[in-house]
UniProtKB/TrEMBL annotation:
<protein>
    <submittedName>
        <fullName>Enoyl hydratase isomerase family</fullName>
    </submittedName>
</protein>
<dbReference type="InterPro" id="IPR014748">
    <property type="entry name" value="Enoyl-CoA_hydra_C"/>
</dbReference>
<dbReference type="InterPro" id="IPR051053">
    <property type="entry name" value="ECH/Chromodomain_protein"/>
</dbReference>
<dbReference type="Pfam" id="PF00378">
    <property type="entry name" value="ECH_1"/>
</dbReference>
<dbReference type="InterPro" id="IPR029045">
    <property type="entry name" value="ClpP/crotonase-like_dom_sf"/>
</dbReference>
<keyword id="KW-0413">Isomerase</keyword>
<dbReference type="GO" id="GO:0016853">
    <property type="term" value="F:isomerase activity"/>
</dbReference>
<comment type="similarity">
    <text>Belongs to the enoyl-CoA hydratase/isomerase family.</text>
</comment>
<dbReference type="InterPro" id="IPR001753">
    <property type="entry name" value="Enoyl-CoA_hydra/iso"/>
</dbReference>
Amino acid sequence: MPSNLTYSSQPWSDLRVLDPDANGVVTIFLARAEFHNALTVPMLEDLIQIFSLLDRDDRVKCIIVTGDGRMFCAGVDLKQGFGKIGRTPETHRDAHLFTTAGTYVTESQLVRDIFSEITDSPAAVIERAQAIANEIATNTSQVSTYLTRELIWRGPSNPEAAHLLESAILHRLYNSGDFKEASAAFINKRSPEFHDSMENIVPKFAPWWSHGRDTEAKPQPKL
């Protein structure tokens, strides 16, 4: 992925994307405030492309998705003709929130478990999101975070195979720059500065990784 790729200059459909900041945080804005940021088909297609690009960009460590105006997102724009919506049990299970056309306080049993944290104002939401994103980006290793997630998602179901794969990954990471940096930061009582990426720490032993890319990833989009 070119390190000089800019996302902010691309003609996204009702979306604004800020380029990675110094900590590797990217912010995506849904930009249809007049329609409460309701999602259209072109927006969804662009979001797929954006996330595919960000996934392969070593500069990116954390992504914030927010919306312009007072509302994050009203859901899909029903005028766009989403014909398959409502065909899953989960949709019907959650339909009470929308079919009643009610307004619920955050303490309501219907919605309180949706939120991990509640802020005092809409403006404070993005500020808190940026603080969390910066904390994640500056205190975690991109490689170890990726491998941990992938082991949970795609790890072998056989205990012996899982142990062998985890052992191989741990052995490889013990020789990585991030491991040495974490050890030095701990000894010197300072914050670590991780720089390893999947491009320079290619785990060839991972069954889903081949030739420097995720073999189960989507076809790469073009700008």
